[in-house]
């Protein structure tokens, strides 16, 4: 086998205006430009992107233009880009499709699931990729069908790569808050390298006589990713087919400062005061500061009493401060719960609306908070009855209004 190398990256989330910030949207674009810069310097034989290239199946024109510019740089450098779609940029329906298809038609990427045999090969390597099916149920149903209709044709004389975007049901891989989308046995045997996306923490380990690798995210998508070193893998394969992984660190990812603190027993005013002091002490040029307020409030105290505006306003140098309320109110006495549930449904919905309104007023103006609270109440009944269609219609209607 002729030695070769490739880049494995995933979860770029281009176009993500995190916290409704245009600056954060540009951060994701800038980091991808850095990925491209480093890839061109490394001169690999090809690049793999294991899903979630974009935050949405239909990115904005600006995001698309930036991506096209970067893909053209890779094409001009003679580096093919092989892709699969992720849970964010997969086709929401057959009519809409995914933006990855026209990018493929333009010759900027090779979208593996779209091509005959869902594959690509050169003199040293065979690469096979599957689409993302969004949910665990659909993955269990549709992945075996896709594999049957597009049977992998592994070549034992080549280095065989399987590209996918899903969390496998492996304790060492899936984080507690992430639902696994597929059982490991659903993935076919015989591949040398399983290139994964969706799991934002990088990892590598043995799997089905090959190597299972998640490259991790390139920018902080949620605050849980803040402590993860951002980067991607450059993989060198020698003449014997043995891969050697090199972690390529990204320098331009935005710095996040997480202030996770337990405020159990403190009054809302004391919590506000203490959290504001922590933010003031942590203030740093260009950083995103996330005060995580945990604990249990005293009796009769409510989360709405926390002055989030005051907490955020003390920072003078940070890009933004985004407090996260994880405080629990003191348990409601049993007699109060009984009085609620013994009342009419109308009364229950009214009280639920008031409760949701208090929560959303912490983040939104009253008119918007009322709209979201009404949506939350309207979703309770269909969610309990597992009426997915009604839930979807309600959410799509709400999105349409926005």
Explain this structure to me?
The protein has helices at 22-42, 61-76, 100-105, 136-149, 268-282, 308-313, 334-341, 345-360, 366-384, 388-401; strands spanning 4-9, 46-50, 81-84, 110-111, 119-121, 125-129, 159-165, 193-197, 203-207, 210-214, 231-237, 243-249, 256-262, 288-296, 320-321, 324-328. By secondary structure, it is α/β, with parallel strands linked by helices. A six-stranded mixed beta sheet has the order 4-3-2-1-11-12. The chain has a six-stranded mixed beta sheet with strand order 5-6-7-8-10-9, with no helix packed on it.
Q: What is the count of β-strands?
A: 16
Structural class: alpha/beta
* CATH third-tier fold name of the largest domain: Purple Acid Phosphatase, chain A, domain 2
- Assembly classification: single chain
Structure at a glance:
Helices cover 34% and strands 21% of the residues.
List keywords for this structure.
alpha/beta; Purple Acid Phosphatase, chain A, domain 2; six-stranded mixed β-sheet; 16 strands; globular
Topology (SSEs and partners):
Layout: E1 4-9, H1 22-42, E2 46-50, H2 61-76, E3 81-84, H3 100-105, E4 110-111, E5 119-121, E6 125-129, H4 136-149, E7 159-165, E8 193-197, E9 203-207, E10 210-214, E11 231-237, E12 243-249, E13 256-262, H5 268-282, E14 288-296, H6 308-313, E15 320-321, E16 324-328, H7 334-341, H8 345-360, H9 366-384, H10 388-401
């Amino acid at each position: 086998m002729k030695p070769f190398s490739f880049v494995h990256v995933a979860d770029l989330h281009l176009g993500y205006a995190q916290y409704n910030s245009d600056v954060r949207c540009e951060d994701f674009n800038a980091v991808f430009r850095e990925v491209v810069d480093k890839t061109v310097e490394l001169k690999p034989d090809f690049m793999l992107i294991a899903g979630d290239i974009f935050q949405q199946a239909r990115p904005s024109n600006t995001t698309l233009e930036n991506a096209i510019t970067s893909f053209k740089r890779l094409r001009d450098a003679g580096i093919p880009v092989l892709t699969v779609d992720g849970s964010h940029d997969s086709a929401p329906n057959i009519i809409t499709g995914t933006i990855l298809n026209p990018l493929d038609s333009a010759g900027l990427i090779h979208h593996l699931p779209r091509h005959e045999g869902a594959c690509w090969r050169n003199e040293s390597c065979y690469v096979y990729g599957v689409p993302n099916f969004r949910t665990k149920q659909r993955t269990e149903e549709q992945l075996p069908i896709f594999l049957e209709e597009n049977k992998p044709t592994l070549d034992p004389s080549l280095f065989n790569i399987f590209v996918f975007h899903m969390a496998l049901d492996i304790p060492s891989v899936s984080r507690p808050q992430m639902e696994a989308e597929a059982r490991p046995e659903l993935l076919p045997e015989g591949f040398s390298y399983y290139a994964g996306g969706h799991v934002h923490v990088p990892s590598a380990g043995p799997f089905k006589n090959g190597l299972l690798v998640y490259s991790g995210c390139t920018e902080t998508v949620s605050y849980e990713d803040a402590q993860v070193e951002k980067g991607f893998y450059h993989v060198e394969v020698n003449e014997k087919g043995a891969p050697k992984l090199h972690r390529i660190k990204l320098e331009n990812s935005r710095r996040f400062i997480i202030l996770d603190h337990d405020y159990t027993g403190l009054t809302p005013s004391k919590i506000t005061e203490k959290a504001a002091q922590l933010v003031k002490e942590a203030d740093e040029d260009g950083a995103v500061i996330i005060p995580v307020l945990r604990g249990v409030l005293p009796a009769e105290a409510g989360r709405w009493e926390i002055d989030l505006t005051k907490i955020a306003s003390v920072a003078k140098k940070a890009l933004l401060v985004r407090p996260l309320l994880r405080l629990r109110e003191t348990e409601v006495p049993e007699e109060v719960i009984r009085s609620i549930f013994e009342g009419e449904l109308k009364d229950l919905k009214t009280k639920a609306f008031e409760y949701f309104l208090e929560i959303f007023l912490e983040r939104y103006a009253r008119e918007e908070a009322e709209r979201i609270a009404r949506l939350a109440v309207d979703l309770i009944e269909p969610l309990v009855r597992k009426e997915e269609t009604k839930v979807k219609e309600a959410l799509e209607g709400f999105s349409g209004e926005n």
